[in-house]
Amino acid sequence: MGQYFSLSAASFLLASGYAGARSVLEPAGEEAQQIAVLFWVMLSGGALIWLGVVGLLLHSALFNRRRLAEKSASRIILWGGVVFPSVTLCALLAYALWLMPGLRPFAQASSAALRIEVTGRQFWWEVVYHPSQGPPVASANEIRLPVGERVELTLKSADVIHSFWIPPLGGKMDMIPGRINRLSLKATKPGVFRGPCAEYCGTSHALMAFSAVAMEPEAFRSWLAAQAIPAPSAGASGSALFLRHGCGSCHFVAGTDARGTIGPDLSHLGSRVTVGAGILPNTEDAVARFIARPELIKPGSSMPAFDMLPPGDVRAIAAWLRGLQ
Ligand code: CUA
């Protein structure tokens, strides 16, 4: 059963339309663009040198088998073995060092209009938006950012070391307990990307991901404004069951009596691209499956199973949560 669920999660990530699992080589952000250029320059440099060495080898093995005089052999070693590699490696190193400030542009407090605080937890992401105006907005397992605007991320961990990475937007940065690391990113194209945890952090490390959504600034601002207020709730029975079965002691849902802080904030769960921290598509069925047997989808998760509840109750809770747009 467990295998079935892990397999279905994996095949969903690989084969479904979950656009997101995009490569570093399809950049959609300023930093990722530079990383992609650096990669192609290094790869072309390496390929040229490899071709040169193999060409020389073939030439000497097939066509030019006479012995060289000691003097010309030493000259080949000096130029081909010392001067050429030193110059090439120094040039590549100088290029990489020259790129570096652009790869880690530290957002000045004044230049970033939006700061997003992300805390890594086993095995999900706590997200708090701090816009320059207005109160902070809490969310989880999804990061939205406006295209064309530099965003500052403050990265923390609540337990072990995790690593924050949105491959098409920029390089990775560790999330270390007791430390605040800063990263700044600027998306250049709208899109939905997958952000994996990039540091082994326990059983479900490979199942710890989030969706990153780069949106047009206007759409982003209206989305953030909608997130700042409680979602209009439909399905009073689901809401009552959620509270009666104790879900509210771990989860927060704005506008209700659910005030827990141990698990992800579910205030606008229905508006997210995925559930289970980047693992399943956000459908009522996936939410119900997660509530019933979380350990089958995310081994090592702190959430207890609720499969002792009548299936109708689980369905009603899932339907209500999905409705929190
Ligand atoms: Cu969190 Cu790996």
TrEMBL record:
GO molecular function, one term: heme binding
Compartments in which it is found: Membrane
Chain ranges of the Cytochrome oxidase subunit II copper A binding domain: 111-226
SUPFAM superfamilies with a match to the protein in the record: Cupredoxins, Cytochrome c
Entry-linked InterPro entries: CcO_II, CcO_II-like_C, Copper_CuA, Cupredoxin, CuRO_CcO_Caa3_II, Cyt_c-like_dom, Cyt_c-like_dom_sf, Cyt_c_oxidase_su2
CDD domains: CuRO_CcO_Caa3_II (cd04213)
Name of protein: Cytochrome aa3 subunit 2
Gene name as annotated: coxB
